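[Automated response] Your request has been received and processed.

Submitted sequence:
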Amino acid sequence: MIQYIKIKNFEAIKEEIELNFEAIDTDGSPVYEVEMPDKRKLLKLAYIYGPNASGKSTILKAIQFLRELWLSPRYKRDDELEFDPFLFQAQPENDSTDIDLAFYVDGVRYIYQLKCTKRSILSEKMIFYQTNQPSELFSRTTDLEKQVSYVQFGSKVRAAAKDMNALETATLHNNTVFGAFQKTNVDIPAIAKLSRWLKDFFRLIINQDYDMSDYTAYQISRDPAFRKWMNMFLNKADKNIREVTVKLKNQDRPDTDLRSVKSWFPEDMQLRLLYDIMDNSEIHFHHVVGDNKVYTLAIEKESQGSQRYFGLGGVLYSLLTSSGFVSIDELDTSLHADLMKHFLQLFLLNSHQSQLLFTTHNLFLLEEQDFIRKDALWFTEKGEDGGVNLYSAADFDSDTLRKGASLINAYKAGRLGAKPNLGSPYLNAP
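Generated structure:
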C-alpha cells in the first residue's frame, strides 16, 4: 500500500506537493484504515476536489508517469521521457523533476526517490525498513556528459556479482533501475519481488472517456462468481436489470489499437485479449419490466451511466479480490451521487489492502459528515505563480474548521479554498 507520494516540477506542479494516505483523523471512520506491521495506519481511499485546471488530473498523471518509468523502459539512448516540467518559468529544463514514493510490500516499508529531466534519470535511491533503521536496496547516479549510469547495491542484496553488473549495464541514462530490469535476464530476487508488486499493484488511470466495458466483459466470460456479483451490482443502478450476458465472437485479431488499453490487464491476459476480447464481445443487459416480461438490450443501447457503471464494476471487483491501486479521474461522471457513494461504500467495506484515489466535482460527499474523513479529503488550487497547491481538510485548525463543523458549508463559504473565481455573470457591453 502507498503511504505517500511527493511530486515536484511535473507539468502544472512547481513546488513540492505531498499526497499522504496516513491516517491522522482520530474521529474518522475506521473502515478507511489498514494497519501496517509497524502500527502505521493507512487509508484505503482519498478524494481530490478543486476547480477546473487546478491540477487534480496532474497528480494522477504523475503516478502514471512513475509507473511507466518502472514498467515501460526506453530502448534507445536518445529517447526522451514523456512528460514536461513546470513550463511557467524562464528555463524549465534547468530544474530536476522529483518524485518520492513511500509504500509497503509484504509488510516492509520502502521509500523510493527519483530525480530526472526529460532526457535523463539523474538519480534514484531505494531504501527499506526491516527494522527501525533503514537499509539501502540500491542507489543510482548518472554521468550526464558521458550518458552513463552507475548502480550501487546495498549489502543486504543477495545476488551474483555478474547479475548486478548486468543490470547496471542495462540501466541506460534514460532508464530507471526497474525499467532496466524489465529487459534484462538477471536473477536479483529483491528487485524481482518489487517489480512483480509494481506490475500487480499499480493500475491504469481511468478517465471519464475511458471505456472499461471490455475488461468487465472479459471477467464475466471467465468467472461465474463475478457474473453473479455483477448482476447484483448492476441491479443497484437499475432495478429492472436482472442479468448481464457476454458472448465472445470468434474472429481474428481486431483492428483496434490496444496499446492504451492492455496496460490495465495482467500480462498473462494480454495475449488472449489481442485475439479474443477487445471489440469482439457482445454485451447484453436483460431487463424485467411489467408482467415479468424480459427485454434484452445491447450495452450500446443503455444509458451512459449504466455503461460507465458496468465498466467500473470490473475495476471494483478486481480491487475487492486482489490488492491494487486505482486512480479514477472524475469518478462522478454520469453517476448519480447516491450511486457513487454506494460504489465507495462497497469498496471501503469489502476491500482489504487496495487503495482508490479519485477526483471529483460532486459536492454531495461533503454533506456526508458520517462518511467522509478530513484526512482523506484533499483540495487543489492554483497559486499566483501558476503552480498547483495541494492540501488536506485535516490541515485546517479549529479556527477555520471546528470539530463537527459542516464541510459543505465551509467549502461553499470559501473557507477551504479550491473554488472557481467566477466573478459577476453580467457581461460588459462592448
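Summary generated for your ticket: The mean pLDDT is 88. The longest strand covers residues 97-105.
If you did not submit this request, please reply to this message.
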